[in-house]
Amino acid sequence: MATVQTQIRIEEDIKKQATELFNQLGIDMSSAVNMFLRQAIMREGLPFSVEIPRYKPEVMEAMEEAKRISTAPDTKRYVSFAEALEDIDLSSMD
């Protein structure tokens, strides 16, 4: 079957995350997009439900902030919860 080249715009971070996920699944971006399109055709619509998040915007913002902090290279890391508590206890002595 003949194929055609298609160009789409994707946010850089979304593309990176999706590529990592698809690599874990053993497929590439093109295969994933083809699967999505085939499912949409079979279902005559989107192959998933589209809903408004049940979380308030403030909660969504906090979740995004937590994600940014957790992936920042300068974020302090702990080996255990006890180590984190020890650091908190030492900070409160200042």
Write the SSE topology:
Blueprint: H1 12-25, H2 29-43, H3 57-71, H4 81-92
How would you characterize the overall build of this protein?
The chain is mostly helical. The chain has helices spanning 12-25, 29-43, 57-71, 81-92. The chain starts with 11 loop residues before the first helix and ends with a helix. The relative contact order is 0.05.
Kindly provide the radius of gyration, computed on alpha-carbon positions and rounded to a whole number of angstroms. 21 Å
The average pLDDT score comes to 90
Q: Which residues sit in consecutive blocks of at least 5 with pLDDT less than 50? A: none
Kindly report how far apart the N and C termini lie: 70 Å
Secondary structure tally: strands: 0
Shape: elongated
Secondary-structure element order, as H and E? HHHH
Summarize, please:
Helices cover 60% and strands 0% of the residues.
Structural descriptors:
single chain; 94 residues; 60% helix
